Amino acid sequence: MFQGLSEKLQETFKRLKGKGRLKEADVNEAMREVRVALLEADVNFKVVKDFVAKVKERSIGQEVLESLSPAQFVIKIVHEEMIELMGGATGKILIAPKPPTVILLIGLQGAGKTTHAAKLANMLKKQGKHPLLVACDIYRPAAIKQLQVLGDQLEVPVFSMGQDAPVDIARASIKHANSNGQDVVIIDTAGRLHINEELMSELRDIKASVKPHEILLVVDAMTGQDAVNVAESFHKDLGLDGVILTKLDGDTRGGAALSIKAVTGCTIKFAGTGEKMDALEPFHPDRMASRILGMGDVLTLIEKAQESFDEKKAKEMEQKLRKQEFTLDDFLDQMQQMKKMGPISSILEMLPGGMGKQLKDVQIDEKDTAHLEAIIRSMTMEERRKPIVIKDSRKKRIAKGSGTSVQDVGRLLKQFEQMQKMMKQFANPGGMGMLGMGKK
Ligand code: GDP
């Protein structure tokens, strides 16, 4: 996501690299480019204007912090201002004190309402809730069926009354939830191709009759400024509690993500990142800003790692990294853990630019860990701890012992060396080294 914008911004910041102090002319030049990049990304015109003005004001004439290069200093300000732009999201559903919590999903046709009703149900179910999906999209012939299929797949009940009036279905579903112990009701409503009075009045009626705790607007990120306009209209008419920004996985520009909050005042609560049921993320402005700036999404990566890593092991590993005692045994362990985190390619995507590229050269063959394991197992303890002692004759012995070639052993050692280098960067608390823009 956001590749287009991200690449342009990184180009701009690269050019700032090496400048001694921040001069007005340099900042102005960089901000001209940032402005163009944001406009091309379909960020709202006024948002861009305010944004650039703020960054300029904070950058020009400022004493650059000792620990940062001028480029990093500007990136830091841009990063902070981007967080501010998208800020305030909680990524949570507010659970009502008295069940059921009623969530109304609204939006235009094709935005992803039905899909996200199911994704939300899936998420809430995992959190120990008992959701009920409600089929109020009576106009699109396949919508009820689609919701039922998804409900079956997730083992979440679906409430439907065919083509009855949506307001009646919604009202009846609350009663149904009450008498069946369902504590969250998620209502999937009908969309239209465009906003019109018929749609709004239908939604106003449902709102009045079920008094939802959360009215969430589902909008397609790929529609850029249209998504922002849609959000503005719905918010004025119905009062939104939040936005679910869908299809972020296909959004190379980022205009909607960056403008919705600033233009409408509504926070983006969730982001849809794929068609699968688990492709729903709480929207984290700080992580989005990092992604847009090509800093990678280190936080998401760490969270993912925590999900699949054994906590005790992770602590041990961290200690080792800090003391730089990372051995080949640990390397093997890491590879196996990383495999559990999902395809290596998807992990690489989340790493900051420089690091991702470095790792790409490492080319971890996902099928090949058995091979690696055999090589490492053929080493002595000393060799595993201090691979530097492995010269030609030892390489031959290890290759023979593991049924591989000297080249295979050499390759593994090289990979290990690169991984060690990368780990050192990871362990460096400054973190900014990851941008590949050393202090000048
Ligand atoms: P509705 O008319 O608003 O109910 O929209 P649907 O839920 O039927 O979604 C329309 C299409 O968008 C479907 O083909 C979905 O699979 C797809 N879709 C929904 N959300 C996402 C998303 O986050 N990423 C991607 N890639 N596709 C999505």
Automatic annotation (TrEMBL):
Domain annotation Signal recognition particle SRP54 helical bundle: ranges: 1-86
Specify whether Nucleotide-binding is a keyword of the entry: yes
The major lineage groups are: Bacteria, Bacillati, Bacillota, Clostridia, Eubacteriales
Concerning InterPro entries, the annotation shows: AAA+_ATPase, P-loop_NTPase, Signal_recog_part_SRP54_M_sf, Signal_recog_particl_SRP54_hlx, Signal_recog_particle_SRP54_M, SRP, SRP54, SRP54_GTPase_dom
Q: What is this protein called?
A: Signal recognition particle protein
UniProt keywords, alphabetically: Cytoplasm, GTP-binding, Hydrolase, Nucleotide-binding, Ribonucleoprotein, RNA-binding, Signal recognition particle
Q: Where in the cell is it found?
A: Cytoplasm
Q: Which GO terms describe its molecular function?
A: 7S RNA binding; GTP binding; GTPase activity
Q: What is its main location?
A: cytoplasm
* SUPFAM superfamilies in alphabetical order: P-loop containing nucleoside triphosphate hydrolases, Signal peptide-binding domain
Originating organism: Desulfosporosinus fructosivorans
User: What function does this protein fulfil?
Assistant: Involved in targeting and insertion of nascent membrane proteins into the cytoplasmic membrane. Binds to the hydrophobic signal sequence of the ribosome-nascent chain (RNC) as it emerges from the ribosomes. The SRP-RNC complex is then targeted to the cytoplasmic membrane where it interacts with the SRP receptor FtsY.
